[in-house]
Amino acid sequence: MTITLYDIPSTVPGSAFSPNVFKTRMALNYKGLSHKTEWVEFPNIAPRMKELGASPTEGMQYTVPVIHDHSTGKIISDSLDIAQYLDETYPDTPRLLPSGPGIAAIFESFFLPSIMPLPKLMQLPEFPKLNPASHAFFRKSREEWGKCKLEDLLPPGPEREKCWLKVKQGLDKVAGLLDKNGKDKPFVLGEQITYAEFIMAGWLVWVKIISEEDWAPISTWNDGRWEKLLQMTEKYRTIC
Amino acid sequence: MTITLYDIPSTVPGSAFSPNVFKTRMALNYKGLSHKTEWVEFPNIAPRMKELGASPTEGMQYTVPVIHDHSTGKIISDSLDIAQYLDETYPDTPRLLPSGPGIAAIFESFFLPSIMPLPKLMQLPEFPKLNPASHAFFRKSREEWGKCKLEDLLPPGPEREKCWLKVKQGLDKVAGLLDKNGKDKPFVLGEQITYAEFIMAGWLVWVKIISEEDWAPISTWNDGRWEKLLQMTEKYRTIC
């Protein structure tokens, strides 16, 4: 075992859920790098990461994914920085960022706003998928962020439907732009899968794991493109 | 002469100004494809393009750039479609879209909102750079779009300053993401110049041509990155 991947456990049997950690897990499996998951409940992330000496990410918060590469001693935070580190450290494995990290960062800066307000939609259904040890922390942080009770954060109803319509319009836009590549270049960067596919699949598999009910319509959008993306990347989501 | 490029003339000696046509001009020169510009004043674009049999672009409007490739008989509208056509039709020339058109379309869908409200800022200083034959058409279309007199569309003052600050923040963001590539991969797609550079240079050279005064501060932003981009792409803006 050479790399430890830190992730948050879930009540879904045999599954993780964190979209950002899934990006790193897919990156590790795609490269065929031996690794093992260490599970950390939400309230333990900051203390465990401080203890490890990991850097905080955006907004000076301690988050996952973090990897500890035991063969180099390096501890890396932030999914894109991890992808860059893996490409640089293991140059003989398939490249995640063949055109550099800049365009992957730009792709995510385009993709994530396109699927807004997906994160807001997922908080309420995510809650029961967490272990009780994470409940209080999750509720407090989400209620501060949403400025309302978790139960009032887009519960079923017309407002929630309107938000899903926005997600659909965003995915329509992404699909329309990617369709310019034609059938022989179905991937974001053309002919082969790269980290950009793992960015999209990380966010979308989150929906599928958390709520099959919410995923059902998405799986049919854009001629089944998103369902196919999840199928194509499934083998890289194996939990080690 | 094998390709005609349709563009809008300007009072700036020896210069064009249209940001979208500059993208195509840079593409043609980068590929070393022989071409000649045919100048069309604003009110004549739609009749001339209908006469040619060119397709309208977004919103069913007739716009430039349009190219007429006399060696194939093809008439192509829309700068990205033209880049794709040129890559496909002249595969032995340097590639504009080595990773396909999808990521270029996504890059532009990220870049253009990042530099908003640049188009609104440029309309008033652009007016005197047009020939009188385009004045009435330009004024009418911009006043309908801005819902105010052209002279009231961000004239000098605090509101205009605030808008430039937004442009600066957007360019800071783009520069920050591209900086992830490091010094050995300074371009959007890594090691070599592609159409993405022409997208940025097309929009930015527009500012420089229309208003040296507005360009002066931008040329210093992000360690002179944008000035360097214009210098590096200058040879591709030769007007044939």
List the helices and strands and how they pair.
The structure is a homodimer of 240-residue chains.
Chain A: E1 3-7, H1 19-31, E2 35-39, H2 42-52, E3 66-69, E4 74-77, H3 79-89, H4 101-114, H5 118-126, H6 132-146, H7 158-178, H8 195-210, H9 212-218, H10 221-233
Parallel strand pairs in A: 1-2
Antiparallel strand pairs in A: 1-3, 3-4
Helix pairs in contact in A: 1-3, 1-8, 4-8, 8-9, 8-10
InterPro entries (chains A, B): Glutathione-S-Trfase_C_sf, Glutathione_S-Trfase_N, GST_Omega/HSP26, GST_UstS-like_C, Thioredoxin-like_sf
Organism (chains A, B): Rickenella mellea
Protein name (chains A, B): GST N-terminal domain-containing protein
Structure explained in plain terms:
Chains A, B: One of its GO terms (cellular component) is cytoplasm. 2 copies of one chain form a homodimer. Helix content of chain A is 54%, strand content 8%. With 240 residues, chain A is α+β, with helices and mostly antiparallel strands. Chain A has 2 domains: 3-95, Glutaredoxin (3-Layer(aba) Sandwich); 105-235, Glutathione S-transferase Yfyf (Class Pi), Chain A, domain 2 (Up-down Bundle), CATH 1.20.1050.10. The first copy, chain A, starts with a strand and ends in a 7-residue tail after the last helix. The mean pLDDT of chain A is 95. The interface between A and B is medium-sized, with 26 and 26 residues.
